[in-house]
Specification:
The structure holds 2 protein chains of 2 kinds. Chain A is of the alpha/beta class. Chain A contains 9 helices and 7 strands, in the order ααβααβαβββααβαβα. Chain A has helices spanning 2-5, 10-27, 51-61, 101-114, 133-144, 165-169, 174-180, 193-203, 239-253, and strands spanning 42-45, 121-126, 150-156, 159-160, 163-164, 184-189, 211-216. Chain A has a 5-stranded parallel sheet with strand order 1-2-3-7-6, sandwiched between helices. In chain A, strands 4-5 form a two-stranded antiparallel sheet. In chain A, α2 (10-27) packs parallel to α3 (51-61), α2 crosses α8 (193-203) and α4 runs parallel beside α5 (133-144). Chain B folds into 2 domains: 13-182, Rossmann fold (3-Layer(aba) Sandwich), CATH 3.40.50.970; 194-324, Rossmann fold, CATH 3.40.50.920. In chain B, the strands form 3 sheets. Chain B has a 7-stranded mixed sheet with strand order 3-2-4-5-7-6-12, with helices on both faces. A 5-stranded mixed sheet of chain B has the order 9-11-10-13-14, with helices on both faces. Chain B is built from 14 helices and 14 strands. In chain B, α10 (213-226) links the parallel β10 and β11 (231-235). In chain B, α2 packs parallel to α9 (155-167) and α11 packs across α12 (269-280). Chain B has helices at residues 3-9, 20-34, 46-49, 52-57, 69-81, 92-98, 100-109, 137-142, 155-167, 213-226, 244-254, 269-280, 300-306, 311-325, and strands spanning 17-18, 38-42, 62-64, 85-91, 115-119, 148-150, 172-175, 181-182, 197-198, 205-209, 231-235, 238-240, 256-264, 284-290. Classes of the chains: A alpha/beta, B alpha/beta. The complex binds thiamine diphosphate and magnesium ion.
């Protein structure tokens, strides 16, 4: 997708890929044939730059034909450079300005609870994104309103644009921070499909608190030359790199 | 001149007065009773925005989000996605200013059905000073696609505009004021969203105003009539979408337009009017408003005088406009 577009964000898309696969194909209740189905669980991609992984999941699930993936970031495409709810079937919310998604998810979770709905609301955030103050405003509110139907996921790849998160603006101790904001915390390996699945099941059983899954991940996962490289945050592969990456990823999936 | 003395000159003592936030609070109570989807959010200012009245009556549908405006906007967006109609309320500076990017991306770009009420608009906020006197919201709200902007001229109009906002789909910004201001419409004066209210039908000069400046424009028109200058006063309560037809029709008739607002001149209501006129009916324009400066502490009417937002300033501008068109 990013190769065809000539731009985009492969690194943070790949680090979230396993989480997204489990969510869309093993956890969430949703119906691609009926994207506005009222009883669907809701997913919000707060780190909007990782939309390639969302678009891939939506296309795989059948929200729109896969041929659209090649139009990502092109003029008149349904697949904008950052998610837009009014253009893409299955995209719940527009995002791209970091730090805003958890508030939306919290508002949604609150509204669903008011109506006695038992659906789940998921929100995927970047670790660098957690530097935004609004995230912690939302975290505080979700704890305060006891939004146990809300599940946050942190893609903890320890990279942002300017380098390692710990160097730019450290987050540790991250689990303690969330606990202090009255959240359940589950720490996992974000590339171990079983651990991911179990974490979501456990999050679903929370009685009074929102849950955050802190998923240790590798930015650029699955492509040797992209792994743990800040430089692959926001640049697309050229033809040669693309061929190599696809070959490596294919080997991993079989 | 003291605030009291100024109030006397403006004949305010003889007028019924109320802050526009009262009309807003009344409307919320009506909406609360009529429509279960209406919810209200505030950021620790419910006692002065008066959303506390809604909170008392409908505690389950009121959310104090704390001093966290950006999150408040996002949560309102999320609530709207579940079919609620959120009314988000705090001071205009903190609502439109601090949460502008949230309003842009999470509300306007996504075209969510969220209503924003910015209290404490304008200089007439008074003693709190510049930090609390919103003078920029009209510009920074009207520039956003999908946003609609309303500045009611009095408490009745604030009430009707709020009721109307609940019916309009998508984001709406309503500017409210802190200070009691003259009530110049009645309970039965119709409010038509997007349709300017032409209050006087004369021929020499048009005065387009919003908010408190509508009253001052009517005063100015009365005094101008004595000097042989007849005015058409237009209450431009809806700044976006702007009523091009009414503005052009009036400008064609008078050939001279004065704009008056309690807001920065740059990008505000006057600019919106000038944009229409420049494109479709270029006539002489004079603008009354705040001239690229912050406010300061003081009594409301002292500030209005110091920053040249009085009826006398409108009169001066009108005379100049009439002079220039000759
Ligand atoms: C408010 C805001 N500031 C800056 C950016 C530019 N930006 C895009 S991605 C990014 C780094 C994100 O890092 P992280 O959240 O760790 O994402 P990931 O590593 O998962 O890609 C930045 C600074 C933005 N999109 N929004
Ligand atoms: Mg990161």
């Amino acid at each position: 997708m990013t190769y065809k577009a000539g731009s985009g964000h492969p690194g943070g898309s790949l680090s979230s890929a396993d989480i997204m696969a489990v969510l869309y194909f093993g956890v969430m209740k949703h119906d691609p044939k009926n994207p506005k189905w009222e009883k669907r669980d809701r997913f919000f991609l707060s780190k909007g730059h990782a939309c390639p992984v969302l678009y891939a999941a939506l296309a795989e699930a059948g929200y729109f034909p896969k041929k659209h993936l090649a139009t990502f970031r092109h003029l008149n495409s349904i697949l904008q450079g950052h998610p837009h709810r009014l253009k893409t079937s299955g995209v719940e919310m527009s995002s791209g300005s970091l730090g805003q998604g958890l508030s939306i998810a919290a508002g949604m979770a609150l509204g669903l609870k008011m109506d006695g709905n038992r659906l789940k609301v998921f929100c995927l955030m970047g670790d660098g994104e957690l530097q935004e103050g609004q995230i912690w405003e939302a975290a505080m509110a979700a704890g305060h309103f006891k939004l146990n139907n809300l599940v946050g996921i942190v893609d903890y790849n320890n990279l942002q644009i300017d380098g390692s998160v710990e160097k730019v603006m450290g987050l540790a101790p991250l689990a303690d921070k969330w606990r202090a904001f009255r959240w359940n915390v589950i720490e996992i390996d974000g590339h171990d499909v079983l651990q991911i699945k179990k974490a979501f099941i456990k999050a679903g059983q929370s009685k009074t608190k929102p849950t955050v899954i802190i998923a240790r991940t590798v930015k650029g996962k699955g492509v040797s030359f992209m792994e743990n490289q800040a430089g692959w945050h926001g640049r697309a592969p050229n033809k040669e790199e693309y061929m190599k990456a696809i070959a490596e990823l294919n080997r991993r999936t079989v | 001149m003291s605030d009291l003395h100024l109030k006397k000159i403006l004949e305010l003592d003889s007028m019924k007065q109320q802050p526009t936030r009262f009309g807003y609070a009344d409307a919320l109570l009506d909406l609360g009773a009529k429509d279960k989807r209406v919810v209200v959010l505030d950021a620790d200012l419910s006692k002065s925005t008066l959303t506390n009245r809604f909170a008392e009556k409908y505690p389950k549908r009121f959310f104090d989000i704390g001093i966290a405006e950006q999150n408040m906007l996002g949560m309102a967006g999320g609530l709207s996605l579940t079919g609620k109609i959120p009314f988000v309320t705090t001071y205009g500076v903190f609502l439109a200013g601090r949460a502008w990017d949230q309003i842009r991306t999470s509300i306007c770009y996504a075209d969510l059905n969220v209503k924003l009420a910015g209290a404490h608009g304008g200089l007439s906020v008074g003693p709190d000073g510049a930090t609390h006197q919103a003078l920029e919201e009209i510009s920074i709200m009207r520039v956003l696609p999908n946003m609609k902007v309303i500045v009611p001229c009095d408490t009745h109009q604030a009430r009707l505009a709020t009721l109307e906002a609940a019916k309009i789909s998508g984001p709406v910004y309503i500017r409210l004021g802190r200070e009691p201001i003259p009530v110049i419409t009645t309970n039965r004066t119709p409010f038509r969203f997007g349709e300017a209210q032409v209050m006087q039908q004369e021929k020499d000069v048009t005065i387009v105003a919003c908010g408190l400046m509508v009253y001052l424009s009517l005063l100015a028109a009365q005094k101008l009539a004595k000097d042989g200058i007849s005015c058409q006063v237009i209450n431009l309560h809806t700044i976006k979408p702007i009523d091009r037809k009414a503005i052009i029709a009036s400008a064609k008739k008078t050939g001279a337009v004065v704009t008056a607002e309690e807001h920065q001149l740059a990008g505000g209501m006057g600019s919106a009017v000038a944009e229409v006129l420049a494109q479709e009916c270029p006539v002489t324009v004079e603008m009354v408003g705040v001239k690229d400066t912050f406010g300061e502490s003081g009594q409301p009417w002292e500030l209005m005088k110091k920053y040249h937002l009085m009826d006398g300033d409108i009169i001066k501008a009108a005379k100049k406009a009439v002079q220039r068109k000759k």
